[in-house]
Design goal:
Length: 247
């Protein structure tokens, strides 16, 4: 779905072939994408979707720490306060829908944290790659490389041995079209225009969008806790964007 428009765009702009150093970022992005998807999906076998979502969204923490320790770009107090508010708000939003934290296995917690770290790596790699490649070309290459890596992983792990009904394939296609194609394209486009730390914090707002969609699509009603969590998450994102300095 991304290949044809990406190739046509690359041909028109003359950027279809990048230099070796630039293409390494494409491969690294695809690898980080595959690792994140594999860890995220595996964690769901050992803990709840709420825990996976919350811990996967700790990516801004790791991005901020990396920028501070490695890049020597220290974030202001507003960034860290806003980040804590956003993560706590996201926790309240998701936990309000799935209160199964006490039944989580330690392995699920570890995999979810590793998923968040890999997500942070993807954000940092994408910010670098988008300096040389368009969002469309980058999204296509990341999807292609990630799909190959996940295919090899699935074949060797036996995950693909499971027979799925036709309805499952339809749902997978719809999820790929909405979340993978459109969703990840927009993420990649935004990460090419925002500093890594700012982009990472903004992505914490995903639970807000999920909750809003749940109201209209699933007729879900929000609890008081979830409304408070949504306000904290949104307020934290806005506060973090006003930080001093940028990563």
């Amino acid at each position: 779905m991304l290949a044809i428009p990406a190739l046509l765009s690359g041909r028109k702009s003359g950027n279809g072939q990048g230099r070796k150093g630039e293409n390494i970022w494409l491969l690294a992005g695809g690898a980080a994408f595959a690792v994140n998807i594999a860890l995220w999906s595996s964690a769901l076998n050992h803990t709840s979707a709420a825990i996976v979502t919350v811990l996967d969204n700790t990516a801004p923490v790791w991005v901020g720490i990396f920028a501070w320790v490695v890049l020597r770009k220290r974030q202001g107090k507003a960034y860290w306060i806003g980040l804590c508010l956003a993560v706590a708000g996201g926790f309240m939003l998701v936990y309000g829908r799935d209160q199964t934290i006490s039944t989580s296995e330690p392995l699920g917690i570890v995999l979810s944290l590793l998923s968040g770290i890999s997500y942070a790596g993807y954000i940092l790699i994408t910010q670098q790659a988008r300096q040389q490649h368009s969002a469309l070309m980058y999204s296509w290459m990341v999807s292609a490389v990630g799909a190959i890596i996940l295919l090899v992983f699935g074949l060797f792990s036996g995950v693909l041995d499971q027979v799925l009904p036709a309805r499952s394939f339809v749902l997978i296609f719809l999820m790929a079209l909405s979340s993978q194609v459109l969703g990840w394209y927009l993420v990649n486009d935004a990460l090419g225009k925002l500093p890594p730390a700012a982009g990472a914090v903004t992505l914490v707002g995903q639970p807000i969008v999920t909750t809003i969609l749940g109201i209209f699509i699933l007729n879900e009603l929000l609890s008081v806790q979830q409304w408070i969590g949504a306000a904290m998450c949104l307020g934290g994102i806005l506060l973090a964007q006003r930080r001093k300095g940028s990563a």
